[in-house]
Design a protein that fits this description.
The chain is of the alpha/beta class and 518 residues long. Helix content is 50%, strand content 12%. The chain has a six-stranded mixed beta sheet, sandwiched between helices.
């Protein structure tokens, strides 16, 4: 008798794996202890495409084997699971392992059983998050296709929702930490993740940013700020070097029109903020975009531009704060020709030592700015004392030491995190590890790490530079001094790291010369 779609699936010879060229296939796991069931399932499924993608079938013959495969193949989308195999409940036990031990909540699981009385249907569905429960006699070819269509659609929805959640988490995290150095890039990555999830697209997308162009952006350059998929390793590169000619042309059209350019499977969206920052989002997908997709992206980008404005504004404020601090610090050192580049060198020494100690990028940036402010209080010290060619007497020394508290008072009550860090450095960089420093006689870790680092950097630069009262010391004599003061003036760990990388600090000194070792 000729087989029809309503006939039960008959045993048949196995078929080769479907061609995996083209769209990425859905991974299907067939679990059954009868080899013929595997063969007939392959025969029924070999020509199926679901949501524009073919199927790739994996086979398991026991519940234990199915769990082992799921451990390796974490992106299996749907499992056709027999209930009774090596034991009466082997399939249910495997499902429990997949859901609970492996924690896989995305894969859709369809139970197939020839003995429905072995497990009550409602209890199984409730307890094990089963997508469907079918008796083997029910699964005609047509119904099997329906099961796949429903299950894979739901799997795609769940994965997209999870990507959306991850993207939203990144956006929230970036919004909560907008004063961090890399917050804007972090925010851009979150935007990209969320757009990708909203469209169920493959993660082959780039977020391109070109900031600070007042003229026509097409005359400037676009740099990749964040990327996913095949563009993930392209961050910082020119867009034209990573996009093909067709994609780049679409991006350029979007920039010229200052709007959207949508193709069948890719689009470029231009948007700008009131702060004159301009951005382009480019996305490629494995399926066609619909008019609804276009409206969704347009709405999303318009809302995102508001967040961009806030982030960019705060970044501008931080940059302005850094620049003002450097200008102020430079103004202080300009009072003496022999102090030329002293502030910059101390800042660079401190940042280098901070990196060697494992501080984060944001901490190193704050440390560098704070270290540049260490002598802020000297703005109130008379020139006669600052430039005295000989040793200071007791009264003059007392006046000189007031520069610490003078500088700290100038910074008290400031809210910016850079100025708060500067306050810690200014007030503590003349304290000593043994407690014999000034102005408070703090010891050990009672002084902030930034101040301890800056204190070491400041002494190193003072000894290595010419002053009105002394000549620069030889490099080896400076190293000997640091060793002698290890555990006394300076924290032992800082001295050890500094001397282990001594040539790094010599190189910094030579790259920022003053009128000091000539």
């Amino acid at each position: 008798m000729e087989q029809t779609d309503n006939d039960l699936m008959r045993f048949a010879n196995g078929s080769p794996e479907p061609d995996t060229a083209g769209p990425e296939p859905w991974k299907i796991l067939v679990v059954d202890d009868e080899d013929e069931v595997h063969k007939v399932t392959r025969l029924a499924l070999e020509s199926f495409t679901v949501l524009g993608r073919p199927l790739k079938i994996h086979d398991a013959y026991t519940g234990r084997e199915s769990v082992e495969i799921m451990e390796r193949e974490t992106d299996i989308a749907l499992v056709l699971m027999d209930v009774v195999m090596e034991t009466e409940h082997a399939g249910l036990e495997a499902v429990q392992e997949i859901r609970h031990r492996l924690g896989n909540r995305f894969v859709r699981i369809v139970l197939r059983t020839g003995q429905p009385g072995q497990a009550p249907e409602l209890e199984v569905v409730r307890k094990f998050d089963i997508n469907d429960y079918k008796e083997k006699t029910e699964l005609t070819t047509t119904k099997l296709y329906t099961v796949l269509q429903t299950g894979l659609s739901l799997y795609r929805e769940l994965v997209a929702m999870d990507r959306n959640r991850l993207g939203l988490e990144q956006v929230i995290e970036a919004s909560a930490s907008i004063f961090k150095t890399h917050s804007l890039v972090q925010f851009q990555r979150g935007v990209l993740e969320q757009i990708t999830a909203l469209l169920y697209a493959r993660r082959d997308a780039v977020l391109i940013g070109a900031n600070g162009f007042a003229a026509d952006l097409s005359c400037g350059q676009l740099h990749v700020a964040a990327g996913t998929g095949v563009y993930q390793a392209s961050e910082g590169a020119l867009a034209e070097s990573v996009l093909d000619a067709e994609a780049m042309a679409q991006v350029q059209r979007a920039v010229r029109s200052r709007s959207f350019e949508i193709g069948e499977r890719q689009f470029a969206a231009y948007f700008a903020t009131r702060l004159h920052t301009e951005h382009v989002v480019y996305l490629s997908s494995d399926s066609n975009f619909s008019p609804a997709d276009a409206r969704l992206i347009e709405l999303f980008c318009r809302n995102v531009s508001i967040a961009y404005e806030n982030l960019t504004l705060n970044q501008d404020l931080l940059d302005s704060q850094r620049q003002l601090i450097i200008l102020l610090s430079t103004g202080i050192e300009e009072r003496s020709k022999l102090l030329r580049n002293h502030v910059r060198r101390v800042s660079e020494y401190a940042k280098r030592l901070g990196r060697l100690l494992g501080l984060s990028g944001e901490e190193v940036e704050a440390l560098g700015v704070a270290a540049a402010m260490h002598d802020l209080g000297k703005i109130g010290i008379p020139d006669a004392i600052l430039d005295k060619p000989g040793k200071l007497d007791a009264a003059e020394r007392a006046i000189m030491e007031t520069h610490v508290l003078r500088g700290q008072r100038m910074l008290e009550g400031q809210k910016g995190h850079l100025l708060k860090a500067a306050e810690l450095v200014v007030g503590g960089h003349h304290e000593r590890w043994d407690g014999r420093g000034y102005p408070r006689g703090l010891s050990g870790t009672d002084t902030h790490l930034f101040a301890r680092i800056t204190g070491l950097a400041d002494v190193f630069d003072a000894l290595s530079s010419r002053r009105v009262y002394k000549e620069p010391w030889p490099w080896e004599d400076i190293a000997d001094y640091l060793r002698a003061e290890r555990g006394r003036q300076f924290e032992p760990r800082l001295v050890d790291v500094f001397l282990d990388h001594y040539t790094d600090f010599l190189a910094i000194h030579q790259s920022l010369p003053g009128d000091d070792r000539e």
